[in-house]
Structure formats: C-alpha cells, structure tokens
Amino acid sequence: MKPSSTASSSTATLDVVKTPNFVKVIVITIFSFSVITLLYLFPSSPFPSSISFSVTTPQQIKNNASLVSPRPKKTLPPPPLTVGERTGIVDENGAMTDDFVIGEFEPSAMDEFRNLTGGRGETSTKEDGKLTRVKYERFRVCEESTKDYIPCLDNVEEIKRLNLSGGLVIYERHCPEEGKGLDCLVPMPKGYKKSIPWPRSRDEVWFSNVPHARLVEDKGGQNWIALKKDKFIFPGGGTQFIHGADQYLNQISEMVPEIAFGQHTRIALDIGCGVASFGAFLLQRNVTTLSIAPKDVHENQIQFALERGVPAMAAVFSTRRLLYPSQAFDLIHCSRCRIDWTHDDGILLLEVNRMLRAGGYFIWAAQPVYKHDENLQEKWKEMQDLTRRICWEFVKKEGYIAIWRKSLNNSCYLSRDSGAQPPLCDSNDDPDSVWYVSLRPCMIRLPENGYGANVTTWPERLHYPPDRLQSIRMDATFSRKELFKAESKILE
Ligand SMILES: *[C@@H]1O[C@H](CO)[C@@H](O)[C@H](O)[C@H]1NC(C)=O
Ligand SMILES: *[C@@H]1O[C@H](CO)[C@@H](O)[C@H](O)[C@H]1NC(C)=O
Ligand SMILES: *[C@@H]1O[C@H](CO)[C@@H](O)[C@H](O)[C@H]1NC(C)=O
Ligand SMILES: *[C@@H]1O[C@H](CO)[C@@H](O)[C@H](O)[C@H]1NC(C)=O
Ligand SMILES: *[C@@H]1O[C@H](CO)[C@@H](O)[C@H](O)[C@H]1NC(C)=O
Ligand SMILES: *[C@@H]1O[C@H](CO)[C@@H](O)[C@H](O)[C@H]1NC(C)=O
Question: Which ranges does the record mark as transmembrane (predicted)?
Fold first, then answer.
C-alpha cells in the first residue's frame, strides 16, 4: 500500500510543478512559514491582533516612523495555568491546612450536601484517588420576622438598654457583640420576584419584594406611594413635591441656574428621603444622589429606594457624624425631613456644613419657609440667624423652597467677632474622621489652599485629578496626579 501511495503523490507533485498554481502553493507555504516564525518569535502575543496580515512593503516601512519599532504592540500574556498541588487555607499558626469550616453556602449547595450526608456532619468523596473532605455547619433558616434584619440596627437587646430620652439614638448603629449576632440564615420575603428593571422601577416595584404596607397606610393620602394590585407605585409627587418631582427640580434650576444639575452639581445627598423620588428623578439629570433615612417606624424606607434602583443607605442625624468625609457633596437636600436644624445650637446643620463642599448648596423645603403661623415664622427667623452665623449665603426663597450656599473660603469665618457662636473647630479636629465620632458643635475650617472649592464641571471633572488626592494619606507620596491619569487611561 505504502509504496504505491508515495508513487502517486510524487506524480501529482510533478503535475503541479508544470502549472502556474505551483507558484501560488509556494507563496502560501512561505507565507504560512513566516506566520509560524512570527508566532515563534513573539510567543507572548499569540493572537492575530498582533500579527498584521496586511502587506507592508519595505518602502512603506521607511515612510512610517511608527513602524520602525520591530515589535508589534505587546498584549499581556494570559496568566499561566497553575495546577494546584494542595488547596487549603492558612491556619492561625501560619501553616497551610485543608481542614477548614465553610460558613456560607448557596442554598442549592446546602441541599446537595445535606442529601449527600443525610444531615449535619462531615462528608468525604474520593475522586481520582484523591480524598476531598468537607466539614460543614448547617445553619437553620431564621424566622420569617427576621427578613429585614440588619445586625447593627436591629440589636434589640442593646436598644432596650439605651436611655430612650436620647431620641433618635436608637436608630444609630449598635452592633451586636461577638457571638450575639444571628446564627441563622435570613429568609427572603415570601414570593420574592426578580426586580422590575430600570427605568420602569422608578415608578413601580413588586409588593412581594418589599412587603411593608405601613408606609402606604401612613402616607397613602399624601400621594407619594400607593399600592395597586401586586405593585407599589410612586407617582413622584405628594406632599414632598406638590406638582411632581420633575417640576420641583425645574423650579430649583430656575431659582438658581448655577446649581446646573449634571454639570456643576454631580453628587447630592437627600436627607430623610422618603421613598427617594428626589434621587430617582435626579438620576435622569445625570446627578448621583445618595438618599438616607433612618430605619424607623415607617419600616425600612431605604428598601423602597434600593428596590427602585436609587442609591440609598440607612442613616440618622443624631449624635454621631455621618459616614462621609468633609466636602463630600455638591448639594444637600432636605424636604420635609422633620429635622429641627436649629436645636442644640444648630449641631445638625453644622454636620451638613461639614459634608457640604465649599460653595455647595443646601436646599430646604419645609413649612417654616412659607407658612405664616407665628411659631413657624419664629423657626424661619432662627434658621436665617443660624445660617448667617455659619457664613452661609442666603441665595433665594420661593414658594416652600429656600436655598443657601456654603462659603468658598475661610474669610467670613475669620472676620466674625471673637466669641461668635458657633465657634470654629479645633484645628486638630480631623473633619474626615467619622467612624464613631460624635457630632461637634463647631464649624470646620476649610483648607487654606482652597482644596475642594475648585471642581470642574462634569464630565470633565471625571478626568481632572481631584485636589483631595493631594491631602489624603496614601503610600504613593509623589506623582498622585500622574497615577490618577495613568489609571484613568488604563480604564479607558
Ligand atoms: C503609519 O502607521 C500608523 C499606525 O500603524 C497609521 O495610522 C498611519 O496611517 C501610517 N502612516 C503612513 C504614512 O503610512
Ligand atoms: C435532595 O433530596 C431531595 C429529596 O430526596 C430532592 O427532592 C432534592 O431535589 C435533592 N436536592 C438536590 C440538590 O439534590
Ligand atoms: C438619660 O438621659 C437624660 C438626658 O439626656 C439624663 O438626664 C439622664 O440622667 C439619663 N439617664 C440615664 C439612666 O443615663
Ligand atoms: C447625561 O449624560 C449623557 C452622557 O454624558 C448625555 O448624553 C446626556 O445628554 C446627559 N443628560 C442630561 C439631561 O444632561
Ligand atoms: C472668599 O469667598 C467669598 C465668597 O464666599 C468670595 O466673595 C471672596 O472673593 C473669596 N475670597 C478669596 C480670597 O478667595
Ligand atoms: C482650578 O481648576 C482649574 C482647571 O480645572 C485649574 O487650572 C486651576 O489651577 C484650579 N485652581 C486652583 C486654585 O486649584
């Protein structure tokens, strides 16, 4: 068989030599050979993206300086496949061990293990002669009533111990001591459904995902949330925004055009956010709003915000600083947030002052702004007096909305009479230190170098290294701006 096949193939070769096709075959062979050679030369870039199949004549190469470099653009090689000899974790003595407890499981994985072993305990499987031993603890599922459990906010034991005359203190963080947290799996609400996608979620969410009717019962008459069959709907209006949230935002823009949502104002904080309609409608205007509200009698308002697709956190103005650095927000908003800004020498407004960027805006929509009752007028006067003393510029008042602007620098702070209240904070009070730090009844000085006051407009701001970068503690002491630019380039 073999000899005859060789013979016939050599005959064929002879035939090819006679035809012009032979030339093509040679060309293709040489071409393939050069491709293979290239692959051999640049093994780290094995993908065609680095091997150009277009023909470049030597003349063109001479004309194009960018081709002078013989190496094609290098792409990072894929990480080498490492075959683990041993897997495990490092134990408390620093030694590798394969004896460890896995704490959390996917529910389906739990089932599988339960089925494998018939309950609590250890399981061994033998595969390819290797023994895999898995030891696990089986968690029970908690009661239905824990479905909204937040460890540091629902620490009932600790909250009972607190001095209840402390008002909102009970809504601050009180994390359980070690070993006192839940030891069971928090169940999802019954009938939980896949969330409605944005932007539809701005206006409706599944009742089964946030099964709390309390807010509707209390606020239903006010038209900012309603229950309709199996969904909550958010009309985007209500007492907070009488003519709807969009109209409310238009009014603010007209009152103070410099606020320029989406350009000058990019990051906002909404205090006492209700169901976060302010943030939901600002998203369309390219403003990222963080909405905060306590987890209080109105169940967890934050859950509504998150289910709608609006960034939110459970937080309360009470005795501690909020968990944001100084000069974090371009705008801070409070509409009927029922916070008494002037009580306790304005300590809560001083916290707003700390978080507000130099030149940032504070928007207050509340009854004292427009109602003529004597006590409300008194509140308005107190507010005007306090904001003047902390050097905020009163920008405008229209209808039920009042707007102030924080100073751009320390000049007003320093020109106040000695003994003026509230005092300036100690210069060693770090305005960015917030974790379990108490509120202070004083005004944070702005950085003398003007950091924070000068931000460019969005989206240019995204590419301009923030001043703050120069003052934060980090390992790289030099070239922060360069690092910022390099990283932005990589991400592009
Ligand atoms: C030189 O090469 C670059 C990139 O490969 C290409 O964009 C450019 O058009 C070339 N210029 C000439 C004159 O060939
Ligand atoms: C576990 O066993 C039960 C009953 O024997 C079965 O219905 C279930 O599908 C099993 N689960 C898995 C993940 O194999
Ligand atoms: C509770 O707080 C009030 C005022 O804040 C204080 O007068 C009272 O002594 C406190 N009681 C206890 C038991 O700490
Ligand atoms: C929001 O930003 C996008 C992308 O930069 C832009 O196309 C859009 O026009 C902006 N929308 C508004 C309302 O400014
Ligand atoms: C300080 O800020 C005020 C506005 O808050 C401005 O009018 C004034 O020019 C600023 N002074 C300096 C020295 O920048
Ligand atoms: C303000 O920002 C602009 C550009 O964003 C920059 O050129 C200028 O130097 C900045 N000024 C200060 C005082 O930081």
Answer: 21-42
